[in-house]
Amino acid sequence: IVSKLPAVGTTIFSQMSQLAAEQQAINLSQGFPDFAADSQLLAALARHSSAGLNQYAPMPGVPLLLQQIAALTARCYGRTLDESREITVTSGATEALFVAIQMLVQPGDEVLLFDPAYDSYSPAIQLAGGVPVHLRLEAPDYRVDWQQVATRLTPRTKLIIVNSPHNPTGMVFSHADWLALQHLVTQHGLYCLSDEVYEHMVYDAAPRLSANCFAELAARSVIVSSFGKTFHVTGWKLGYAVAPAALMTEFRKIHQYVTFSSFTPAQYAIAEMLREQPQQVTELAGFYQHKRDQFRQALSGSRFSLLPCQGTYFQLLDYSAIAPELDDLSFCRYLTIEHKVAAIPLSVFYQHGSSARIIRLCFAKQDTTLAQAAEVLCRL
Ligand code: PMP
Ligand code: GLN
To answer: What are the Aminotransferase class I/classII large domain coordinates in residue numbering (predicted)?
Structure first.
């Protein structure tokens, strides 16, 4: 077989979670909560399934959920969506990203993305025959230099992929960033794929902004989110895409042949939560900000230095005062095997790697888990 992705191996998330399990380590590597989801949500799933809602959902998603996504988008960002034509429910944000890229990228098209980048973008671009063009963001703030971005445009540039709040750095776009992105996209006739899976995890009372807030940008964007993140159920693999009707028509042509539709009882359960417990979405930032603050406080006496975290449930740590001789993958393996705390090396999020001594830890964990991990990390 001739590999279509010769440079790709098993994802670092699978590798580190497996190593963590083998080593019985505290797993702060792969991003997922170690606590239960809301009991009302779990009960709703069981109830809808018992009631017989177990067959194929409509291809674009269950209408009750589409309505709730439209209502959520209006509440959070003031954007009015046509729920029957501008929203599609997908099997996780991963499917939405993949479908959007297959839809937008023709062979030879260039796609701008920022390193460190979430790992699913580049393979999806390559499978579409496109050319990923990676722009590096630099520690400690990982902010985008929009003037530099403009210099990397060519006549073949078709799409720009952005991710705010940003995995793995926790960087969050400012109002000025969104305006600069909108300007770039509209001036150069690009499309934008906005990965907003951590949209409800923005800290320190910063405004919650989205491509949804900027009409001219939204007109050329596919916006992706994930209920796995928002409702602590990453294993349900339920997300959605929002786009203008003309784009969404093309999106659905592909979605219908990738998965056709997504897990039916979960769609009803999430719709019920959005209707009856809408405050859970708005309370998420406070919930995770508390964890971020506790974790950072607990690590303040350690020899790690903490990078800023404005959003997401990830914290970057610089370990150069502890083991400057180890590259970050070796350090993560050492940490997991010798100290029983698993983390993700930052270099895997770069096309050409990184020599920085930085690791990513996930703080979507019980307070006791975070305290135990911090105690270990403070001893290093
Ligand atoms: N984008 C980013 C930036 C992510 O961190 C994740 C979750 N790992 C995804 C997309 C995929 O989300 P889902 O689990 O809903 O497929
Ligand atoms: N998004 C998760 C993370 O960044 C992992 C998702 C996955 O395992 N593919 O840790």
So the answer is: 25-376
Which mutation among 30, 95, 119 tests ligand 2's pocket best, with the greatest number of atoms within 8 A of CB?
30
Residue entry with tokens 């799409």: 159
ipTM above 0.95, yes or no: yes
Which residue's entry shows tokens 């350690």? 302
Q: Which two tokens stand for residue 30?
A: 């792969």
H helix intervals, the chain: 12-22, 39-50, 63-77, 92-104, 121-127, 146-151, 175-188, 215-218, 227-230, 245-258, 264-276, 279-299, 328-339, 367-379
pLDDT tens digits for range 118-162: 999 999 999 999 999 999 999 999 999 999 999 999 999 999 999
Which ligand is nearest the CA of 195, by number? Answer: 1
Average pLDDT, the chain: 98
CATH architecture of 12-37+280-379: Alpha-Beta Complex (3.90)
Instruction: List, by residue range, all CATH 3.90.1150.10 domains of the chain.
Output: 12-37+280-379
Residue among 288, 210, 274, 283 at smallest CA distance from 242: 210
Best mutation site among 32, 95, 98, 348 for ligand 2, i.e. most ligand atoms within 8 A of its Cβ? 32
Return phi, psi of residue 32, to 5°.
Answer: -160, 150
Q: 39-277 adopts what CATH topology?
A: Aspartate Aminotransferase; domain 2 (3.40.640)
Q: Is any atom of ligand 2 closer than 6 Å to the C-beta of 18?
A: no
**17 CA closest ligand 2 atom index:** 8
Cβ of residue 167 lying under 6 Å from some atom of ligand 2: yes
The answer to whether 222 and 104 are in contact (CB under 8 A) is yes
How distant is the alpha carbon of residue 56 from its chain centre? 27
- The single residue listed with the structure tokens 């190593």 is 19
Beta strands across the sheet bearing 314-318: 305-306, 314-318, 358-362, 344-345
pTM over 0.95: yes
Q: Kindly state if the Cβ of 93 falls inside 6 Å of ligand 1.
A: yes
Is the separation of the CB atoms in 169 and 317 below 8 Å? no
